[in-house]
Amino acid sequence: MNVFAVPGLPEVRPGDDLAALVEARADLRDDDVLLVASTVVSKAEGRRADLEEFPAGPRAKELAERLEAISGEQKDPRFAQAVLEESTEIIMEAPFLLTATKFGHVGVNAGIDRSNVGDGGADLLLLPERPSESADRIRENLESDPAVVVTDTSGRPFRHGQRGVAIGWSGIPASRDWRGETDRDGHELEVTVEAVVDELAAAANLVTGEGDDGLPVAVVRDWEFGNHEGSDNLYRDVDGDFVRQALRGWEFARD
Amino acid sequence: MNVFAVPGLPEVRPGDDLAALVEARADLRDDDVLLVASTVVSKAEGRRADLEEFPAGPRAKELAERLEAISGEQKDPRFAQAVLEESTEIIMEAPFLLTATKFGHVGVNAGIDRSNVGDGGADLLLLPERPSESADRIRENLESDPAVVVTDTSGRPFRHGQRGVAIGWSGIPASRDWRGETDRDGHELEVTVEAVVDELAAAANLVTGEGDDGLPVAVVRDWEFGNHEGSDNLYRDVDGDFVRQALRGWEFARD
Fold first, then answer.
1. Which residues bind a divalent metal cation 2 (chains A, B) (predicted)?
2. Which of B62, B67, B143, B181 has CB 3.0 to 4.6 Å from A211, enough for a Cys bridge?
């Protein structure tokens, strides 16, 4: 399996054809996986926004005041309003906003980015509205037919640090299913579902970087999904997500 | 970056020299990262165990009874005893046991494996006692000097499916730190700490597989950590882990 960043992508602007920008810089193959950072997908889709587009309602003011009291830093209630508008549920409101986005991803601040916005005066970069549809569109516009994964980076419980995750995918199932398969001693496997799109996103993040030389597009080549059942059910329902249930009932308190 | 599985590893037995087994099958380089599944590390370290080594105390019996009532399946209290003995904290006791291992990793059943145990009649495969020390030892026994990462697979909140994670590492920091670095527009980066050992483990898991043809060792070649600060602080303290705090106070209840 080979993983490499696509070099030389220009600053992406609203309406840009990402497929064309990538194909001008990489010879893609039908069995590649193309991994595109959500930041450039959002930029191409015009998902930049200004704080003034989000006049804060009472709930946003309340959230911002609480975060301000906890952090001792000024918090803009318009940012909290933007998070509310991008979310279907606030899972945790302190010491930071953890929410479920409309498409199912759980992330801090609904994944709204205040860095990497680029020129143009916009303050915020929202996640793509429906990242799997974004992946479909990129794929349709390519001459070749690789799988396409839209990636983000995200923290997690129990472990420090962020790692790449998938938030949208096309031309590949999200997971491969080893259920009913056995190890070489004939024991049924305990690991049953492998979230391959997340593992591909993690691999891509190792080569794309974040900084000055940030390269937002990577290719995974010579990797095979293999002969397994696939599933697109990546985001847990609340019913089966005990952590989400526990966080709903939990209240942050400072010592 | 190139990722490949090391082929042809035999069934690993207690006392086997993993370094020699790997070097007989792969030309390792000093700038490689060698990823070794915890299953084979445990086997080499004699971490197979029999259920009868864990006579169940009252707490284990109580845990097993509760899990039995919830699942409708028979649960062996000796297994719960083994989980207790491998853990420093039971974070969640129903509908499954989520615990913190002695070395800091949070996982279901303290990472004890009942598949993949191989011949020899043992029922259980415990995780290595101190996986970063295991990684040190493998590295010391190699002729070459790659980084070594001991991997496992693990589920996670919010998202279905498992993915590769690191539980021990040597010759590489767990994370690279982008703090204070800026993107190409001069904005300070929001992503500050990248858990590279977990991303490397995820990449390895894409090529090693789980089943009949499971290949427990992989190599990542031509990848650079780059010019960043590093950190070995991968496991969160309870103080900064809000999910762990929330789960402690949460009680599973069936509808």
1. 153, 210
2. B181
